[in-house]
């Protein structure tokens, strides 16, 4: 431990600087005086660099500004909303109310490379459903204005109607930075699924090709959304799409879905009680090449010998005798001779038809066909790749699900669609993120699937507190925002899932920790250089305090843990050590003392270090200007190999 005490960073990492640091490690000769030498970088890339005059890609007005919006650090934090949570102390699920651009930045520290599946259903850009704060330059400040957390001056709301000159550009400017940040959160074998309509499907595919890489496109899958539509001009619209992209398709396992199996189709075997059926494909496959080690005799139950059709028949005829093909006209078995000798007990013999191509030892037509056994408990043929069209998850299912819960919400996706997508990865312990949560279909689907297969998946939902229309059914039901609807749906869906499977869902996690996007709890520089001297002096006085006076210890601790890279579901307990009220994170991983009004004594601080934590976090103001006390604590921590951080 060095003598310098590290401080909690005031903002999320500067992604531009992070990229420059990575370049410094890879190509140090391209960094000069702390800046990237673009000309040198092009020289090093040589033939791999694109010609500036002839570039291929998707370009639109505002693209560079949208990229900067993703790279710009944020001082925002998440404040716990325990009163809107469920099972706070035990749940591993998270619900966040806030602008997803700022939230995605906050999630970068801990959740980088930890999300296995992202599913989002962003606005389809129909000209009336695209409601987002449209000043992306200001980030958090715009969000706070929009949600009336500060004054309403300059507040804007965009519906992006087609009459606006940059209809597609506005939508792309909203999506681009969010997808850039989302990619960072995916595991190396993670997948993002995006629902989208006809209006932006083409642009979204081009955008995702740029963000995720064209080679990582898995599929563009149409979904039959409805059958009863009478809208449209030349065709009735019945579909939308699911775009699927991998973080790294080269290590992504193939998708597989279970076929319907009827156990009665498998015969019971008395000697071991296992069930089997004959394979759908015969051991003889006429399309196979003539391989020398796959042509041999097989002995049938009546003692006759069977061989695929051909022209070569040796004088010595016995079970397993190899018969080398003379030409491509000599056919072979699916199994090699060695496999047959080891697994001949796994074959089923059935009477052949009049057109049976198999021959006996005399070259005449055999009366037998041969099939491998397929055991019910290891039926690999029961799994197959999913079709690239989704037929069975129409919007009408979502309408019924929401009606059953008493939730007034339109245009939701059915849980069946999301559970279908989740099953494709065959991962029962993953984290699933949806940062356009809507009514939280994704959270419902995660709980439902866990109830069905005993999985331990967890969700993170992010939803903008978009106001519900004043005369709407939702507003009349008491839901002021879409975020209110979303939280309520998670709560009610959890109750319903448990009620429907009471014997198998005792340990099912249907809770969630609720958070709200907010400005930092710590002082920050937030005025321009042209400020009046009197105001500047006042602001400098305000900066003496490290934390806002109205900040709760829960809010302070949450922000500190986030900026140190901890998860949103850390186990946190209150404790008293030597008369100090502290927070203990994890199994004594962190001890935090966050009371700026009560200065601890040296003996009390010694007791903190003696409790053997990995890290101690102190509010700077808790020392109340006593540098000697701070130095003594630093030495105590150094002697005990305990990290000391201040905030």
Describe this structure in words.
By secondary structure, this protein is of the alpha/beta class. Helix 11 packs parallel to helix 13. 29% of the residues lie in helices and 18% in strands. The chain contains 17 helices and 25 strands. It is elongated.
Largest sheet: 9 strands, mixed
Q: Whole-number average pLDDT?
A: 84
Distance between the termini: 18 Å
- Radius of gyration, rounded? 32 Å
Strand content bin: 15-25%
Give the count of helical stretches: 17
Which structural class do you get from the secondary structure elements?
alpha/beta
What is the tally of beta strands?
25
Helix content: 25-40%
Low-confidence stretches: 151-157, 525-529
Quaternary structure type: single chain
Q: Major sheet: order of its strands?
A: 3-20-4-19-18-5-6-8-7
**What's the shape?**
elongated
What descriptors fit this protein?
647 residues; alpha/beta; five-stranded mixed β-sheet; 18% strand
Structure in a nutshell:
With 647 residues, the protein is of the alpha/beta class. It contains 17 helices and 25 strands.
Helix-strand blueprint:
Elements: H1 15-26, E1 31-32, E2 35-36, H2 38-45, H3 63-71, E3 77-80, E4 94-97, H4 100-111, E5 115-120, H5 140-146, H6 167-185, E6 186-196, H7 198-212, E7 217-224, E8 239-246, E9 257-258, E10 267-268, E11 275-278, E12 298-299, E13 305-307, H8 337-343, E14 347-351, E15 359-360, E16 368-375, E17 383-384, H9 395-405, H10 415-423, E18 431-434, H11 441-453, E19 458-463, H12 473-476, H13 482-500, E20 513-518, H14 533-542, H15 553-563, E21 572-577, E22 580-585, E23 590-593, H16 602-610, E24 615-618, H17 627-639, E25 643-646
Helix pairs in contact: 3-6, 4-6, 6-7, 10-11, 11-13, 16-17
């Amino acid at each position: 431990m060095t003598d310098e005490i590290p401080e909690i960073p005031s903002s999320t990492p500067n992604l531009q600087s992070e990229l420059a640091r990575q370049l410094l490690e890879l190509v140090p000769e391209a960094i000069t005086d702390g800046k990237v030498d673009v000309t040198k970088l092009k020289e090093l890339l040589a033939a791999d660099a694109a010609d500036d005059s002839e570039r291929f890609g998707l370009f639109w007005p505002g693209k560079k500004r949208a990229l900067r919006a993703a790279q710009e650090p944020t001082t925002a934090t998440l404040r716990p909303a325990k009163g809107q949570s469920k099972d706070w102390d035990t749940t591993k699920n998270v619900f966040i109310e806030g602008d997803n651009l700022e939230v995605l930045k906050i999630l970068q520290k801990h959740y980088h490379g930890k999300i296995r599946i992202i599913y989002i259903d962003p606005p389809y850009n129909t000209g009336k459903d695209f409601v987002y704060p449209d000043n992306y330059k200001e980030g958090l400040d715009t969000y706070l204005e929009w949600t009336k957390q500060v004054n309403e001056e300059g507040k804007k709301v965009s519906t992006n109607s087609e009459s606006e000159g940059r209809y597609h550009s506005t939508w792309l400017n909203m999506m681009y930075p969010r997808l850039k940040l989302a990619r960072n959160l995916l595991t190396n074998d993670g997948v993002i699924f995006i629902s989208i309509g006809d209006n932006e499907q083409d642009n979204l595919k081009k955008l995702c090709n740029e963000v995720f890489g064209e080679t990582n496109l898995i599929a563009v899958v149409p979904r039959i959304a409805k059958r009863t539509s009478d809208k449209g001009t030349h065709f009735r619209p019945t579909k939308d799409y699911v775009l699927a992209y991998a973080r790294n398709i080269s290590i992504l396992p193939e998708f597989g879905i279970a076929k319907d199996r009827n156990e009665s189709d498998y015969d019971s075997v008395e000697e071991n009680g296992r069930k089997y059926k004959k394979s759908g494909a015969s051991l003889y496959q006429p399309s196979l090449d003539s391989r020398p080690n796959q042509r041999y005799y097989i002995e049938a139950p009546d003692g006759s010998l069977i061989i695929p059709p051909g022209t070569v028949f040796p004088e010595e005829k016995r079970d397993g005798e190899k018969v080398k093909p003379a030409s491509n006209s000599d056919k072979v078995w699916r199994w090699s001779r060695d496999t047959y000798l080891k697994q001949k007990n796994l074959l089923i013999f059935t009477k052949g038809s009049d057109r049976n191509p198999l021959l006996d030892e005399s070259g005449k037509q055999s009366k037998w066909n041969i099939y491998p056994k397929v055991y019910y408990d290891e039926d690999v043929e029961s799994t197959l790749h999913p079709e690239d069209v989704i037929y069975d998850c129409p919007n009408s299912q979502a309408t019924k699900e929401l009606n059953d819960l008493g939730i007034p919400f339109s245009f939701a996706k059915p849980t069946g669609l999301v559970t279908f997508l989740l099953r494709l990865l065959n991962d029962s312990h993953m984290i699933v993120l949806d940062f356009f949560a809507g009514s939280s279909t994704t959270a419902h689907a995660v709980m439902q699937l866990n109830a069905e297969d005993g999985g331990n998946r967890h969700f993170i939902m992010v939803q903008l507190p978009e106001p519900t229309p004043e005369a709407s059914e939702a507003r009349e039901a008491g839901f002021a925002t879409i975020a209110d609807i979303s939280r309520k749906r998670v709560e009610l869906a959890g109750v319903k899932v448990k009620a429907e499977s009471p014997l198998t869902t005792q340990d099912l996690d249907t809770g969630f920790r609720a958070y709200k996007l907010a400005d930092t709890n710590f002082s920050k520089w937030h005025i321009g250089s042209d400020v009046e001297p009197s105001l500047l002096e006042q602001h400098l006085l305000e900066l003496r305090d490290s934390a806002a006076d109205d900040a709760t210890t829960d809010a302070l601790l949450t922000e500190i843990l986030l900026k140190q890279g901890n998860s949103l579901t850390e186990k946190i307990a209150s404790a008293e050590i030597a008369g100090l009220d502290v927070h203990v994170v994890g199994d004594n991983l962190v001890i935090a003392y966050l009371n700026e009004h009560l200065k601890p004594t040296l003996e009390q601080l010694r007791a903190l270090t003696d409790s053997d934590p990995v890290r101690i976090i102190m509010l700077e103001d808790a020392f109340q200007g006593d540098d000697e006390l701070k130095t003594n604590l630093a030495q105590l921590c150094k002697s005990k190999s305990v990290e000391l951080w201040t905030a």
